[in-house]
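Example record

One chain of 325 residues, shown exactly as stored in the release files.
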Amino acid sequence: MLGLGKSETVTKSEKTDRQGKITERTTITTTQDAKTLWDWLSLFGVPLSLLILGYFLEQLQQTRAAQQAETDKEIAASNQREEALQSYVDRLSDLLIDKNLIIKATKPEDKELVDAAADVIRVRTLSLLRRLGQDGERKGHVLRLLIDTEVISKLKLKLCDANFSRAILCDVYLSKINLKKVNLRFANLYDSKLNETILSETDLFGADLSFAKLIEAKLNDADLTEATLNNADLTEANLTGVFLMDAKLIGVTLKRANLKRAKLMNADLSGANLSGADLTKADLTDAKNWSEAQLAAAILCETKLPEGCTLNPNRDAPSTESPHP
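Predicted structure tokens for this chain:
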């Protein structure tokens, strides 16, 4: 074993007689190896371990402090958003009650006042949504409030360009309201009622519409890329020019839906009901989990069918033959 030099220990002893005279002297020299490297490491190991432990404890404390600071920051931000929402609710309530707007909305002579109030509400709503950022729960609360107070239906509040992205709207009644051009990216609309709702040009990228009711909904030119519509009901819905790339359409009902020029590239059609759906000029390139029986039940005219489909993509094109005299 590696040593760091040697060391000697000298031990002297004497023997004396009864008169105290020294009769014998003995000198013993003991030689031993100096401490090895492992001895030195063992010697310094404890303080070194303590130093390392102290370092990691300090790092842990700093990490916890940073996490706590982040938590405190988020709590403060959440409180600010809640205050902004409550202030919005209070002002909206005052405006509706003081001006009696819902009743006046039915009177033609009060149209100018009602329109001006609706403009004020729109500005305040857009401002609040900007402050709420990614707070989907409170955004959902805002939209439900506008529906419940009939601001949208009676005051004809226009919400185009309003940012309701990530709004939580599960099992919410949204039928027959105008949500044209609204930002609903990644919104949670699971099991919501959207029958006859206007969603034209609406951004529904990545939204969850599973089990939603969209019967006769107007979704023309809407963006439903990567959206989930599993088991949704879109019977007779207008999906003209809609973007459904990479969408999940598992078990969806599209009976008699208008899918002219719809983009269905790479969409999952597993179990989809396409009976009577109009796929004129629709693009189903690379669609997944389809069957010819499904596609055969739809209207095909200049349709881009997925690879491997043997159906005539122009099967239902209007006849060009001249009528007999």
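Notes: The beta strands are 6-16, 22-33.
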